[in-house]
Amino acid sequence: LQFVESGGGLVQPGESLRLSCVVSGDVLDYYAIGWFRQAPGKAREWVSCMTYVGGGTDYAHSVKGRFTISRDNAKSTMYLQMNSLKPEDTGVYYCAIDLWGSEMSRAQDMDHWGKGILVTVSS
After folding, report:
1. Could you tell me the CA-to-CA distances from 67 to 2, 41, 63, 97, 121 in Å, in that order?
2. Please, which residues have CB within 8 angstroms of residue 40's CB and are 6 or more apart in sequence?
3. Exposure letters 46-74 (e unless 16+ CB within 10 A, then b)
4. Is 52 in a helix, a strand, or coil?
5. Nearest-CA neighbor of 29 among 107, 101, 108, 121?
6. Among 68, 86, 100, 110, whose Cα sits 20 to 30 Å from the Cα of 32?
7. pLDDT of residue 54
């Protein structure tokens, strides 16, 4: 499997970004999708997941109400819309997929990972 992540960059607090992750090499329909992030000097943390069928989602408390996870299986692409960004959202963001997974999938469940993309929120 191959992942192509895009949409990261430098933004000011309060602004928005949309991360995209195109997955090739398998059918995305069968996978739960997830986003994770790692801030400088900190451990990787779970951000959000979406089940492979039914549309169920879950979010970390720190991003709930600001971030939205979505998918377009026809384009084999997953997204993370990030609004009202804060400096503490800074980090490398990773997309990941879990075969037959759910919105409860976490890092230990993920089968495949993207290489990560940097998001920096700073004034």
Report:
1. 24, 23, 6, 18, 14
2. 90, 91
3. bbbbbbbeeeeebbeeebeeebbbebebe
4. coil
5. 101
6. 86
7. 84
Exposure string over 17-29, b if 16+ CB within 10 A, otherwise e: bebbbbbeeeebe
Q: Per-residue confidence at 63, pLDDT binned at 50, 70, 90?
A: very high
State which amino acid sits at residue 43: A
Lookup result for tokens 């790692």: 38
In which residue are the tokens 């919105």 written?
Answer: 103
How many residues are recorded in the chain?
Answer: 123
| Separation CA 42–CA 27 (nearest Å) | 33
Instruction: Record the tokens describing residue 51, joined without a space.
Output: 């089940």
Q: Using CA atoms, how far apart are residues 19 and 78, in angstroms rounded to an integer?
A: 8
For the chain, the average pLDDT equals 95
Band (pLDDT 50/70/90 cuts) for residue 26 is confident
Lookup: tokens for 20? 């995209």
In the block, which residue shows the tokens 């993920």? 110
